[in-house]
Amino acid sequence: MVKARSQFVCQQCGASYPKWVGKCENCGEWNSLVEQVVHAAGNSAVARSAAHGNILKAQSMRSISAEVSTARLGTGIADLDAVLGGGILPGGVMLLAGQPGIGKSTLLLQIAAHISEDALVLYASGEESASQVKLRARRLGAVAGDHLQFVASTSADDIAATIRSGAYKLVIIDSIQTLSLEEVASAPGTVSQITNSSNVIIRAAKASGAAVILVGHVTKEGSIAGPKVLEHLVDVVLQFEGDRYGGFKVVRAVKNRYGSTSEAAIFEMSERGLSVVENPSAALLAERQNADGSVVLATLEGNRPILVEIQALVNSTNFGYPKRTASGFDLNRLNLLIAVLEKRTKLNLSDKDIYINVVGGLKLADTAADLAVAMAIASAAAGRKLDDGLVVFGEVGLGGEIRSARLPNKRIAEAKKLGFTQAIAPKSGKKNSFVRGAHDLRQALIDYMK
């Protein structure tokens, strides 16, 4: 009897090795190799495919009919519809990923309950039993109708067959890491199982016209678990970010074939599920006290302007190497800004511990936060504070110059709406009495620190 041959496959990038190694040479991940059985049909299958196949009949782009069903399914949450480009497209496959406990299943059950008022919806769970899902549905008030149906299964074959039946308008699968195909020998969650299960489900969705939402796990670094090919296969990739223990939670599109990737929906968790935050700026600044180290930043979540407080704390270090800590802000960017402050403004921060906090649990990816973070550090180090009516935004270059920010008019309008009177921002050619233009970081600190 021929002994089955095995190989070791990296669960991050899909690279294969004849024997186990501690570190994948392709992507650099440690302890990511899993043993899988190799089927001996490779060369024969290639030889057969070379002699078979039919010539495809092509048609001109002009002759292709575009009369397909484009009526989107509304989620019942206007901000989430904007992120998706107008709603869930029939036949589209969406991947929703986020930290455990952040509220992915809660959000999807709310969406399923709303869509089930007019269409048949299937919630397929490979992680929870029917009674566990029923408890959450009862808390959210999602058990009223018979159009929301549930099945507990980890078989990708069975779920794909159910999708191909055409009975359901929306199918939610929680989660793709728990599914497995009977023909694939590896365990659920491996690269081969995720790739093949996703392919089978996506083909079923395209054939039946049903919309499918896949729940994806994330790694400890925050990236989507599994092979990168999973993100390429689906039509929409949504990232669910925020603090799972409190604060605001943000849903943004990382990839969207049918809409923009510049929108964001902001939620907060309550006993009745996730609800949209109508005025996040007012909520974030409600408990602010204007002290040294506190600066109000006009930032953007997608195309939505938000005012958020940046807090800085500067202490003398008790160790030989100063500590830098950032919550909600990139640590490498923080170290760069500290170096610019030391070089361009003559502030001595080499013997200081520096702590940065973005209030509300938000994670900033906006480069216009540079000026606010730098001014907060300088304010805390000097023990001086900014005026109550000042809002700050602008990118800081390595030479200390302040560079322009995206959509400044939206930031300014949001600041005016909340009662701010002046903005420290990059100088522009247009005259604006609200904006106090600043050419470089040193001049901004001299002019606006009291």
From TrEMBL:
Motif RadA KNRFG motif is found at 255-259
CDD domains, per the entry: RadA_SMS_N
Q: Which residues lie within the region annotated Lon-protease-like?
A: 353-450
Q: Which Pfam families match?
A: AAA_25, ChlI, Zn_ribbon_LapB
Task: Name the residues that bind ATP.
Answer: G98, Q99, P100, G101, I102, G103, K104, S105
Q: Give the RecA family profile domain ranges.
A: 69-218
| InterPro entries noted in UniProt | AAA+_ATPase (IPR003593), DNA_repair_RadA (IPR004504), P-loop_NTPase (IPR027417), RecA_ATP-bd (IPR020588), Ribosomal_Su5_D2-typ_SF (IPR020568), Ribsml_uS5_D2-typ_fold_subgr (IPR014721), Rubredoxin_2 (IPR041166)
Domain of life of the source: Bacteria
Q: Which UniProt keywords apply?
A: ATP-binding, DNA damage, DNA repair, DNA-binding, Hydrolase, Metal-binding, Nucleotide-binding, Stress response, Zinc, Zinc-finger
Q: Which family does it belong to?
A: Belongs to the RecA family. RadA subfamily.
Q: What does the record's free text say on domains?
A: The middle region has homology to RecA with ATPase motifs including the RadA KNRFG motif, while the C-terminus is homologous to Lon protease.
Q: What does this protein do?
A: DNA-dependent ATPase involved in processing of recombination intermediates, plays a role in repairing DNA breaks. Stimulates the branch migration of RecA-mediated strand transfer reactions, allowing the 3' invading strand to extend heteroduplex DNA faster. Binds ssDNA in the presence of ADP but not other nucleotides, has ATPase activity that is stimulated by ssDNA and various branched DNA structures, but inhibited by SSB. Does not have RecA's homology-searching function.
Instruction: Give the protein name, as stated in the record.
Output: DNA repair protein RadA
Q: Which organism is it from?
A: Candidatus Southlakia epibionticum
For this protein's source organism, the top of the classification is: Bacteria, Candidatus Saccharimonadota, Candidatus Saccharimonadia, Candidatus Saccharimonadales, Candidatus Saccharimonadaceae
Q: Which gene name does the record give?
A: radA
